[in-house]
Predict the 3D structure of the following.
Amino acid sequence: MADFKPLHPLGNLDELVEKHSFFGPGSAAITIGVRKSVECAQLFAGNGNQAKIAKKLNFDSSTGKATETKGFTALPIAPGQWILISKNSAPGFADGVAKSINGLGYLSQQSDSRICLRVSGPKARELMSRGCRLDLHESHSGAGFCAQTVMAQIGVILHQLDDNPTYELYLYAGFARSFFHWLSHSAAQFGCDIEIISNQIKR
Amino acid sequence: MHRIDCPWCGTRDEAEFQYQGDATATRPAPDAAEADFFDYVYSRDNPKGWHIEWWHHVGGCRQWVKVVRNTMTHEIHATGGPQSKLSVPKPSGSRLR
Ligand SMILES: [Zn+2]
């Protein structure tokens, strides 16, 4: 029996950190955090059930705004569609959601489909603004802002965690290396470090 | 560059959208003549001025957006969802006809 080990879509993360980090903790203008894994699920409302589901789960009904619940963050990506991100990377975190929306919609496991990169540091807003066409000015997008857009011709879901600002980017695992190549090169002009973010997320 | 008002996402840049053609072409009845289907699939006007067209918000919410756009000035008069009944502005209201 072959001994299979899970591999991050970006390959060996320790090598990645060694290759790309030059500044030391907290001193680079940009820090790209690579989350080791993401537990997430996609929630689809059945036809006409969008408002019912949003009400049942207490989701913020305004477009472009994440909802924080005890176990997960819900990111709206289209009418009646949310990505649910587990806060403590617990598998099965969405089981309760699946039960409560029974008959109103569909929930599908997406944990292996996406990676998450966290962009922070004094130049984070500038880097993100250059990378996509969203209005990321503080007067328009604050903590909790969330939008699906395109960076380097790759679809990403952008979620602003706080007003520093810190951003999290979710993208399909198959684009991980290509996207990281672009992101790390774009960040190099400001000075960039890479760090690994363990699965336990404190927010 | 256009900034297109997606009914769900709000105003977004043209780069997130794909142009999908004339939004006024309607499918003929199933028993219509072959020539009618040929027209429906292949024949398009090339209007100078106002045009009602589809833009697919492929880089955002993946919804189809109906847009009333002036092909000469690139001015966008109105946007809406697929069911929206949009019409072109009256000639006096536009800079070009
Ligand atoms: Zn949209």
In short: The CA atoms of residues 52 and 68 of chain B lie 4 Å apart. The mean pLDDT of chain B is 92. Chain B touches chain A at residues 8-10, 12-13, 15-16, 59-63 (CB under 8 Å).
